Amino acid sequence: MREEEPNTSEPPAVSAEELVLRSRNLLGELEDLECFLASKNRRESELGSVELRQFKNSIIAESNSLQKSLRQLTGADLTSEKTVHTLRSSNLPFYEAVWAAAKRSTGLIAFNKRFYWDETADDIKAINTRISDRTPVKTRRRNVLVDIVTRGGLEWVKVSTITETRLLFDMAKAGWENGEDSDDVEPSVAGSGDELSLVKLARELSRAAQATRIHYRHPQIRFVLPKVALGIIPAIDSLIANIQATGAQVECGPSPTANCGTPAPALKDIAENLLVDPFADFSPTLNIDCTILLALVSDLSHGAVAPEPRFHHAIMRQIELEKQEKLLPDLLFPAMGARELVCTREAHRRMREIVELIGTRTEKGRTALLMGDDPGKPRDVLVREFRELSDHHVPEHWNLPVKVVESDVDARKTLPATAKIVAENLSEINRSVFLFGWASGQTTISSNRTVAKLIENLVEEHRKGDDEMGPSIWLCPTARSLVGKEKNRRSWGKG
Question: Where is the DUF1308 domain (predicted)?
């Protein structure tokens, strides 16, 4: 993490004892966050986990350093140059500012994370004007450090505790006159060696964001400058405008309208906001893939299944996974909620074929309820009878039955040209499921990671512009096959 350069031109405003206490309080809050996340049983493979280790270790090291300084400063002259430098050199205020910004965010993913992009030959030549156009230059890998990754990965936050005084000094050194950069400030062009560090950083973050996509979208960049105010010094306003010209948002303080100018909220009041909600962007109607239909009726999903010698190794693995995390109450029921559930006719047909061929009596019974074989049974009766075939609590609001719909080929005509390339690379059943969800704007729930990744790669490779999006797909991190009857069969339910 790039710490802020300390300002040692003024006497320390706090004592070593106070800094030590503040470092312990900060560590305590991070440990409280870890406990909160653990209580939510956040999976490492999901967006619910938060990368905390490196940030926490930096604070531990700073706290240890402060405690050592406290012992050394006992009885020392607190106004001496050495003492002033020691106290003002602490990185603790920067770490506190990062944590305060994180607590005002939502969907926390990580602290202190690097992102990469490839710098082209033209970019390198633009930075170093001494390089001739005829000089061959190899593309090089560049990276930039992001202090906080939030909104499920869609926002990068960069915090700087630089002061207005230091900014004005740096601007004068870089040759700014009347608040204007003497170099070319076009955001798409890399700056020179004496460019202001904040503007250069904004450009680097922009380049990295353009090389990164989360669900087909580029992350938004947000700068947090708690010690810089807007509307007071024109030169600083101009600097902020240069940062904003790269596409970044900028929060300044202290100001009545700036979040970073107010005290950070207590962790207990905002802890839930820090969790990523993986279902926030779900459509009101969910398109259920064949893999999920099978998981919803599998005996493996509804209670303890004793291993048998006849079981395929994939089923043995799923039995172990179910012991660690219950697929229905922990993942699928929360994902589906009370939303309407549909599946394409092709997905329904394939699911029925597998259930009829190898399904157990209870798996067939659940299938009849899930698909509403008896149209006279209302939803509450279907839920009640389904509950009788499960060891888990089946939510009252579960929207049974799953409705079978036609995968309207005509509707696909509204899709971008990329969809044709995607369709050519999918099997008939996957074409019906994923292109239907894409054309209808419905979120598709699937455990078919291979197909979902193929679709994402094809869309990214062949899309015509940044506004072109692929289908909304939620991948269930684990699958469940039917228990089945055959001894040496392969694992069914992979779609």
Answer: 286-371
